[in-house]
Amino acid sequence: MTTIKTTCARCGDIHLTPDDVALELRPGGREGDYRFNCPTCTEPQRRPANSRVVSVLLATGVAFEVVNPDPITESEIEAFVAALEAESDPFRLLAG
Predict the structure, then answer these.
(1) CA distances from 56 to 19, 87, 94 (A)
(2) Exposed (0-12), middle (13-18) or buried (19+): which is 35, by Cβ within 10 Å?
């Protein structure tokens, strides 16, 4: 079985399985954070994941979700709808 070696702030080096790790990707999918509970002390841990770490975690089968820290607001949606309704050729908006 695949194991992932990382560190716990309290226990030091530990080994996890892909099911023990959750990956949160930023939009674009190249960087993010990974989370796990230490199998020794059970403390929740969170670590940054650069593009290399993301690649390794994805290759081992770690589940992921894309997290957007700045979701689209209602006013942005309303402005977009208004722009679409005012434009006779909506694809022209994409060119600019």
Answers:
(1) 14, 45, 35
(2) middle
Contact 14, 31 (CB under 8 A): no
Token pair of 18, please? 């892909």
Rounded Cα–Cα distance for residues 52 and 33 (Å): 12
Q: What is the DSSP letter of 22?
A: E
Question: Strand, helix or coil at 91?
Answer: helix
Local confidence pLDDT in tens for the 96 residues of the chain: 789 999 999 999 999 999 999 999 998 879 999 999 999 999 999 999 999 999 999 999 999 999 887 788 999 899 988 888 888 887 776 775
Residue 20: strand, helix, or coil: helix
- Please report the DSSP string for 46-58 in residue order: EEEE-HHHHHHHH
